[in-house]
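Example record used in the benchmark description.
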Amino acid sequence: MSGAEPQILVAVRNGVGHLTLNRPAGLNALTLVMVRQQQMQLDAWAQDPAIRAVVLRGAGDKAFCAGGDIRALYDSQRSGDDLHLRFLEEEYALDQCLHAYPKPVLALLDGYVLGGGMGLAQAASLRLVTERTRMAMPEVGIGFFPDVGGSYFLPRLPGELGLYLGVSGVQIGAGDALYTGLADHCIDSDRLTELDAALDRLPWSDSPEDDLRTLLAELASGELPHAELPRLRPAIERCFAAPDLPAILAALHAERQTGAADWAERTLQLLGSRSPLAMAVTLELLRRGRHLSLADCFALELHLDRQWFAKGDFMEGVRALIIDKDRTPRWNPPSLAELSPARVQAFFAGFRPGHAALGCTAHTSCH
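Model output (structure tokens):
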């Protein structure tokens, strides 16, 4: 892609503002430029009475958005500048703005929806998946923790489903996205063009969100896609309600004697590949997030960010998976048995709920 190719495509048709993440070769991973362009356009549209709704999508057919540009964050920390922290602050502010946006936002979640893509998706008022959707908060796999509001939306999923998704980083498809409440509607990917045509001629009423819901219900797949999680739900509840990570692992070992043995074995293998520190901090973060406001969840994530690049496992995770590609991260500590609870709690020290200064304070149009 040439340097002149815009990273965000903007179009307005029939009162709909269309924003397209336009880095298909990079699975539409977010850069600071993309965050700022979206924020600027959303601020303008919030004040424009001619804009009735906003549609977010990713270019190409592989991904809505596969997260943030983690290589850029790695390079920033290595070079000693603060780009990585500025990116996260502005990304979270954009997500928080979308959560409070005064007009309906429809996210078309075709393909991969990972990390930062989930931050955008879960802030939207309507979330549409297809049979190609693969959704996850996979941060523990690179020695990080679920951010972009994940500490708010994951623990608010039914039962322990959000803790399972956050601590394991496992991917789910369209059926499970609907089952967990991470999506609202599913349509066949080959009907997305039809959806665009319908949006172009939609007669708007005084309730644009209702207009969109009616349209999506008409186009939605008649048959619900296959979901794995309903069958696994009892085992997930038994394991991920355990008080800490060692107890979760013990519960998973016990599940190997039940009908969920295959799932338990897969989950144990998956957790065995993740950063012990990142998993333990994730568990604590999500359990705290259950009782925090949205603004406080974003503020707590930033509180962790400001320590994590120097004290967490992110740099080693990115080195192993993206830079050297040896896929053998040397986590610190290498095992859960060597991780002290005090080290986990230290990341949360000094955080005071109710003092969040992030987000829409600088963007009055978001209110």
